[in-house]
């Protein structure tokens, strides 16, 4: 199985999933920011992540992760129990829409757009929107992870997006900060992070 990657990108979520599932894989680092790239992602728009597994090729982070969960079913990580699965799916949907949208737009302004072309108005708008959605987040005090006491696929998407928010300088409550630290201290995250940075 080959995963096309780039440091500090969403390909980390796929590698993290693979590490959680204990599946071996190869990575191919794409020349994402190079004007004359020697390695190009086969993704229809040249993006990462992209996965090739035999005759199956998949683009879109969530679609790749769900394929992996279904190919390598592991009871608690992506439960087959309808009630538990619906909770994981709700958090995945929330992470990729309400939560990620303002944070990703803020990150693009702060990291990818040169300072002279940056819009202060947009930065302030996306910062406020990010803060609003993060402040609305309610963590169940009795639970270690977002859906309960099992670390699931939803925790990968939630904690990675919250980490982006933290990197953008958004103030995070101690509970959310602890949650990010718990997730990113896992051996699976550290391994995935190492491989995604190569
Ligand atoms: N919706 C896609 C987004 C993928 C995406 O935008 N990836 C970024 C890196 S995190 C990328 O490849 N950017 C390069 C580009 O847009 O050319 C997914 O979730 O996989």
Automatic annotation (TrEMBL):
**What Gene3D superfamilies does this protein map onto?**
1.20.1050.10, Glutaredoxin
Q: Which domain of life is it from?
A: Bacteria
Q: Does the keyword Transferase apply?
A: yes
Q: Know the name of this protein?
A: Glutathione S-transferase
Q: Name one GO molecular function term.
A: transferase activity
> Secretion signal: which residues?
none
Which residues belong to any copy of the GST N-terminal domain? Answer: 1-76
User: What does UniProt list as this organism's lineage?
Assistant: Bacteria, Pseudomonadati, Pseudomonadota, Gammaproteobacteria, Enterobacterales
Keywords noted in UniProt: Transferase
Q: Which intervals hold domain GST C-terminal?
A: 81-198
Q: Which SUPFAM superfamilies match?
A: GST C-terminal domain-like, Thioredoxin-like
